[in-house]
Each structure stands twice: as C-alpha cells, then as structure tokens.
Design goal:
alpha+beta, 4-stranded antiparallel sheet, 3-stranded mixed sheet, 10 helices, 11 strands
Length: 267
C-alpha cells in the first residue's frame, strides 16, 4: 500500500523479481491503459502511475479510490452486470466466436502443456475439449474478460463498481466467464459441492438471460472451467506441472468439469 503522511491510502504497488510474474504485471499495465481509453460509464478502474523494470525487478504502481470505509459487495448485483455488459459492448469482437474455434484454441494450449501435465488432468481436459468439439456449433459473443472478477477484486464507489487486479485479463472470451467466476466466488457459493455450484451458476445465467437454453448454459460453464483450469496449470513452472494436481481450485474444477461433460454428452 502507498499512503500519504497522514496514513490515507493513495495506491498500491506490485513488485517482483520473478520474470513469470513480471509478465503478468506488464499485461495488467497494458490492459489498464487500454481500459482507461474505453471511458467506461459503469465502472471505475485504477490508473497506472508507473510501470517499469530495472535490474530484473518489475514494478507496477496504481492509484486507488479505496478508503477505510469503502463498501464491498459479495453478491452479483446490477452494478456488476452493468460492468460486464458495458465491457462486452465496448470490446466486442467483430463477430461471435464458434464453440469449435474455442475448442481448437483449447486444444492448442493443451498440446503445449500436455507433455508436462499429470495424466489424470491430461485425460480430463482432452475429453472435455473433445466433448465441446462434438456438440452442435454455438456462436458466442467474445470480448475482453477481466479474468479474475471476484468480490475481493471489486468495491462500490458512488453507487458504481470499482474493479481492480486485471493481470489475468483475456482478450477474446465470452462475457459469461466473468459472471460465472464471480458467482462461484461468492462466499455463499464457495463451500457448496460441485452439483450445487452448477445449479447456482445455471440459475444465475437464466436470471440474466431468461431465454438461454440449458445446453448453452452448460457449454458456457464448460468453457469457463476449461479457461480457469488452463490458466492455473499454465501458471505452474513446467517442472511442477506433472507432480502437482492440487493447484488452487483443482478439485472443485475437476468435479464440475466431469459432471458438465456428462450432462452435455447426454443432451
């Protein structure tokens, strides 16, 4: 934290001498610069005050509107939906992306990590991608995704949402990814079992898009779980991937992916 002489919070600093983390900080700095140019009406985002690297150390400094009395939110509200919808509108790809193209991108990522990947997860990801490819093709909107849209990465400011920690932003993702990520990380959802989590996500998507088909919602959830699982695996050093299958959320994501794969296969 960066504070003034009176102890008032002015901003945050992220610093690392790890090149892998440094790449994330550079990505966050670039993303924040891009998002600031969008002039979002629904959301505040941090301003980049400094980004640079010297002697192998990477530094990112951002400002903040956060205070000791800033209210946080733990439920997906209209303000959160307004952010997701505006971000989707202003960063929309020129045309929707087919599930077959999305599956192809996942396949490329899996081919890259599979030689290092623990066998059970390699089979699980392979089967889920194959399942996605075998389904009737759906065309989903694609846009910039925050990537880690959670209650703890947001707070309310003047009845609008403030969204920070953009290091995992992805350029071409369905907007449903951010919605699902937030819902699964709500405190009341985090400790539920896999089937209850799936039910909560389906109800949330139906509430937002009343006309959505169950198979479409299931495909959205599958794409999200594949996205988050790939990201967590790719974060690991190559020499640890084969030895580790308990990265953050691995057990829950495995259970959800296995159930969703069975559901979509039966549809």
């Amino acid at each position: 934290q960066v504070m003034d002489i009176d102890g008032n919070l002015k901003g945050f600093v992220k610093v690392t001498n790890n090149p892998r983390v440094g790449a994330l900080l550079q990505h966050e700095a670039c993303t924040l610069e891009y998002v600031s140019k969008l002039k979002l009406r629904s959301t505040y985002v941090p301003n980049v005050l400094f980004f640079g690297e010297e002697d192998g150390v990477t530094l990112l400094v951002t400002d903040t509107l956060k205070t000791a009395n800033t209210p946080t939110t733990t439920n997906f509200l209209e303000a959160h939906l307004a952010f997701v919808e505006e971000l989707a509108e202003k960063t929309a790809a020129s045309s929707p992306v087919s599930t077959s193209v999305i599956a192809g991108h996942f396949r490329e990522r899996l081919n890259h990590i599979q030689p290092h990947l623990e066998e059970t997860w390699a089979h699980r990801l392979h089967d889920a991608i194959s399942n996605l490819q075998s389904l009737p093709t759906l065309y989903l909107p694609a846009c910039l995704s925050h990537g880690d849209f959670t209650p703890w990465n947001t707070f309310m400011m003047d009845d609008q949402l403030y969204v920070f920690d953009w290091e995992y932003a992805e350029v071409v993702c369905p907007p449903s990814n951010d919605i699902i990520h937030f819902v699964l990380n709500e405190p009341q959802t985090r400790n539920q079992d896999a089937r209850d989590k799936i039910k909560i996500v389906m109800e949330s998507l139906t509430q937002i898009w009343p006309d959505i088909q169950q198979q479409t919602a299931s495909v959205m959830l599958m794409i999200y779980i594949l996205t988050i699982s790939m990201r967590q695996i790719e974060r690991l050093p190559p020499d640890r991937i084969k030895k580790v299958n308990n990265w953050d959320g691995a057990e829950d994501n495995a259970a959800i992916l296995d159930i969703i794969s069975d559901v979509t296969t039966d549809c």
